[in-house]
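To illustrate the input format used throughout this study, we show a single complete record. The first block contains the structure-token representation of the backbone; no residue identities are included at this stage. The design step must infer an amino acid for every position from geometry alone.
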């Protein structure tokens, strides 16, 4: 089932961090994981999702940028959970 989508402008994968669509997609991915119970690396059994790892590491320096970009574009599904 598709949730949301965005069309990026970075043709080369190396340029993805300059593409706001990439930021929104990464932020939405982590919000969805958190909304549905969190990654297994963040929670204890019984696990609520099959996501073993977070989509965006807690210490990712762009984590807040990703979250805010997704929230601005689609609305917030879950509060920010990074460090």
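Output of the design step:
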């Amino acid at each position: 089932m598709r949730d949301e989508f965005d069309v990026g402008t970075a043709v080369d994968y190396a340029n993805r961090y300059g593409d706001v669509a990439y930021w929104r997609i990464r932020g939405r991915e982590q919000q969805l994981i958190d909304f549905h119970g969190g990654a297994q690396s963040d929670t204890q059994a019984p696990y609520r999702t099959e996501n073993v790892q977070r989509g965006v590491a807690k210490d990712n320096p762009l984590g807040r940028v990703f979250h805010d970009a997704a929230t601005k574009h689609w609305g917030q599904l879950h509060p920010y959970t990074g460090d």
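Structural context for interpreting the output: The chain has a mean pLDDT of 92. Helices lie at 20-35, 63-74.
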